[in-house]
Amino acid sequence: MDAIQANARSFVVTNRSVLAIAVPMTLAYLTTPLLGIVDTAVVGQFGDAALLGGLAAGSLVFDVVFTTFNFLRSGTTGLVAQAFGRGDALEEQAVLWRAVLIAVVAGVILAALSPLFAVAGQWFMGAEPRVSAAMSVYIRIRLLAAPFSLINYAILGYVLGRGEGGLGLMLQAVLNGINIALCFLLGLELGWGVAGVAWATVTGEFLAMLLGLAIVLARFRQLERPSRRRILDLPAYRRMLSLNRDIMIRSFSLLAAFALFTRQGAQFGTVTLAANAVLMNFFLIAGYFLDGFATAAEQLAGRAIGAHAPAPFRQAVRLTLIWGFGLAGIATLILLTAGASLVALVTTSPEVRAVADTYLPWAAFTALSGVLAFQMDGVFIGATWSRDMRNMMLLSFLAFSVALITLAPAFGNNGLWASLHVFLLVRGVSLLGVLRLRVRTAF
């Protein structure tokens, strides 16, 4: 660790340094959809559609709530990476403890409000009583994990800010591995169903938090500790909260775009809605792969900003884009050549398969049209240029809305998918344009 700190200011960005972060974090991110599949499979064994509906609805409500606090991961990564680039070990620790303090306060409030979130979720979904009851059970239990989940966000942000992708993978593997094992034990073996799946999450988050805190505390014992005054520095909190506010607005705009996409697809009929859902899963899985390189861009760009090192910054942008486009190209080729077979694996409905195959090329190219947006997001988060990221996301959402209003009525589902491509391309290109201006003044 001393060697790492000694080289904090002077570093060279190579393919190896990019892959050292991107590969383990790609594997870590892929455990998330795997966990969702296991949750669904466990509850599905009870043969009750109401339980599956309650799980899906509860997961949606939970995801919306926690999207608000995803900044505790990404914001912490950018701030720690910059402190790491400056060689400021005290500030690295202070950033983590500020994020942990926010996580504890917010997490306790969320857990206390879980009954209200359950009632609000039931009202919003408007599902049948048995679905609503299952959803309520899931939300009330799972939100008990809120403090643990948010602290895990902060710890992962700290780890990734230091470029320790292997440690990040280990923490995520432990978290999701425990969760998956307990899903089978509590949900299936003991027959707890939806409640078992929720308690598995609570237990997994708690144990992963204990492990993460043990690792960072053992590390900090060997270092000089920041003063309480530095940790509680109000201007630093204001900066963190400002950064987090912009990331939150960006995340909700992204959710809104996907929600509008789904809603418009529903207007074209149930079969088209189902086919679009199948195809969107392919895009989201490709996104998990691209997220690994976006994470590498976060750490390396943030570190370069902290070190005031323009050459490593440009190299980080260049290499993560090259790897990102290469991976996106491979994903597109796979979907174009084997997509029909993958659709057949996901659904047995002949009607859904036929419609999905028709629009498969649109879904296949989303990886390529979206890669620049993913990578630029990583660069801007690492550099903590959150205001630009927020503004370009709002611009992209406006472009998406205009495209949706004009293209979907004229060209149906083809127009809907074209609107999604417009959204992705405007995000990436607009951020790239701002990046050129930012680099001139940053160094």
What's the short story on this structure?
By secondary structure, the protein is an all-alpha fold. It has helices at residues 2-6, 15-44, 49-67, 71-86, 89-112, 114-125, 129-142, 146-161, 165-189, 194-220, 228-231, 234-267, 270-307, 310-346, 350-364, 366-382, 386-411, 413-442.
List the helices and strands and how they pair.
Elements: H1 2-6, H2 15-44, H3 49-67, H4 71-86, H5 89-112, H6 114-125, H7 129-142, H8 146-161, H9 165-189, H10 194-220, H11 228-231, H12 234-267, H13 270-307, H14 310-346, H15 350-364, H16 366-382, H17 386-411, H18 413-442
Helix pairs in contact: 2-3, 2-9, 2-13, 3-7, 4-5, 4-8, 4-12, 4-13, 5-8, 6-7, 7-10, 8-10, 9-10, 12-13, 12-17, 12-18, 13-14, 13-15, 13-16, 14-15, 14-16, 16-18, 17-18
Family: Belongs to the multi antimicrobial extrusion (MATE) (TC 2.A.66.1) family.
Membrane topology: Multi-pass membrane protein
Keywords: Membrane, Transmembrane, Transmembrane helix
Explain what the structure shows.
The chain has 18 helices and no strands. The chain is mostly helical. Helices cover 88% and strands 0% of the residues.
Keywords:
443 residues, mainly alpha, 0% strand, globular, MATE_fam
**How much helix is in the residues?**
over 70%
- Helix/strand/pairing category: mainly alpha
Shape designation: globular
The low-pLDDT segments are 1-8
Average pLDDT confidence is 88
**Using only CA atoms, what is the Rg?**
22 Å
Total helical segments: 18
Give the tally of β-strands. Answer: 0
Organism: Mesorhizobium vachelliae
Main location: membrane
Subcellular location: Membrane
Transmembrane segments: 18-38, 50-72, 95-117, 137-161, 173-192, 198-220, 247-265, 271-290, 321-347, 359-380, 392-411, 417-437
